């Protein structure tokens, strides 16, 4: 597939305001510069099917003021799930519910993009005892005991998974979603192909960076062919895996340049894997935010320098640590990003973008500290506590309730929710990135 830069004149507004529309390469327009980042809603019904709760939740977020809403993981294979409660879309059996979801999430002029993914070996053994991967290399690090050893994919199986991504993308468009985001980050299958630690293949899908990115570029090409040139195709990618010998910043910049040349509409910068260490879920709340600041700003600056050549390029979304209007304005005005991504703030304060555009949050939104009150439990289930607590609040939003952010021991609430909703398997780690 050749470059698609000529499909539409991109309107990068520099310096952009948070309320400025953004016209993407494909011609679609985001009404402003806020993006709701993907978070696992954990709302799927039996057989990984979408539910009425997805409809209610995304109707709520469509009223938040966000220009773009990106769903949590939608897996391309219902037998290969990354987290408890994932939706899977591999055929049209759930088209009526998907249409209702899409209509609700695209209300009020919002864009609703389906994030499509395959977990590879990063699929907890409690829900998938037979994972697949680029190579038969197990998950490393302290969480390795939660994952079964993967089987190496054959070339024919790789091609079949590429077709699955295309099928899911096509169904997303048919259902009324207004874009797709291909998940190539956080240690899932595409990221595993990119990583020289996970990908030990000696064929056309392994070895050199060109070979290791082949699976990703084939998925992008297949998705584009499935949805057409007038439909947004975005990619979420790691700035790095955060581990020695893994996918590096230098390699990430090269892959992004390739994706840009292919005509991808938006790149969503992220980072970290189950084995990587610098980007993790912690329970520090507002104190953590104050210490950490905005994630991936340094990498975004490098990417902007790469794109500073007078030519038109894909839009850049930066997610993680945005809690105040001044930080978001600086990200846009500096040219570091075209779009600011929000995760946790949209759970705690579902109207956050509207409030920011109305002049609010000149001081940072304070997120709650999620703690059981027992230090040993906090250490043992740190990331699980945070993920489960935010999932529990999304469940409240999904039935029309307000988030419940007060209380001394929110971590106990989170553990109880996880065990009640998913059983003991919920205590296995699901992500290790914590950058919302």
From TrEMBL:
It comes from the Bacteria. CDD domains: OYE_like_2_FMN (cd04733). This is NADH oxidase. The keyword Signal does not apply. Residues 28-357 form the NADH:flavin oxidoreductase/NADH oxidase N-terminal domain. Keywords: Flavoprotein, Oxidoreductase. The keyword Protein transport does not apply. Pfam families: Oxidored_FMN. One of its GO terms (molecular function) is oxidoreductase activity.
